[in-house]
Amino acid sequence: MSVRKLKPITPGQRFRVVNGFDAITTDKPEKSLLAPNKRSGGRNSQGKMTMRYIGGGHKKKYRIIDFKRDKAGVPATVATIEYDPNRTAFIALLNYQDGEKRYVIAQNGLQVGQNIVSGEQTTPEIGNAMVLANVPLGTIISCIELRPGQGAVLARSAGAFAQLMARDGKYATVKLPSGETRLILVTCMATIGAVSNSDHQLLVSGKAGRSRWLGRRPRTRPVVMNPVDHPMGGGEGKSSGGHPRSRNGIPAKGFRTRSKTKQSNKYIIERRKK
């Protein structure tokens, strides 16, 4: 994977850094795995704007991703590595031996023509999905379940990965991308390898219009609002605005909002780094 810096032939291209898309093998998605993707524009069922700064953007079709990897023991061949407009990671089209096709999140180093498989009796190779009970200690993993059969919810974005640190009884100790160390049941599935498109964090959009294409409208800074609109608003001229806080008055920058009585607190061994 690589990135390309464009020549500054226009103001919008002067600082633009684009993805090289070296890993992408096709620009035609599998039609049977597409679904409509309706945009809300930040409005609820009454048409009232409930989320600001959302609207517009290019029309997209949703790619149906197999997060459960529940087709155990059936080998599949990687047919293509594709771009997905709905996520930062690349996706891979799998052709199973029984004729079924499925999309999965592509791992770094996954190649077209490679055979991958999921299930309990699987070797720990890139792209294979297996339960944490069978993953060797120290292995880099991604697309991790939090409850057995739920489907992958952790470490799914571009370049994300976790590490299996230890196993004790029915729990495995996993170090997550945020830096948090957590207990997860050993019967949960995970995929071997880090998620693809690790260069995503190096991209630079170059112009405001590119954010509009992604469906993001311009955002107003709280400091320039009036006191009636935001706790940080008001003041004469360029006054700072006081302590950083949300529109509801909840402080940012280190203020803990997690409930002290949350049921899953007992599974967190070490909190994420600030």
From TrEMBL:
GO terms for biological process: cytoplasmic translation. GO terms for molecular function: rRNA binding; structural constituent of ribosome; transferase activity. Residues 124-251 form the Large ribosomal subunit protein uL2 C-terminal domain. Gene3D superfamilies: 2.30.30.30, Nucleic acid-binding proteins (2.40.50.140), Ribosomal protein L2, domain 3 (4.10.950.10). SMART domains: Ribosomal_L2, Ribosomal_L2_C. Coiled coil: none annotated. One of the primary rRNA binding proteins. Required for association of the 30S and 50S subunits to form the 70S ribosome, for tRNA binding and peptide bond formation. It has been suggested to have peptidyltransferase activity; this is somewhat controversial. Makes several contacts with the 16S rRNA in the 70S ribosome. Part of the 50S ribosomal subunit. Forms a bridge to the 30S subunit in the 70S ribosome. PANTHER family: LARGE RIBOSOMAL SUBUNIT PROTEIN UL2M (PTHR13691:SF5), RIBOSOMAL PROTEIN L2 (PTHR13691). This is Large ribosomal subunit protein uL2. The gene is rplB.
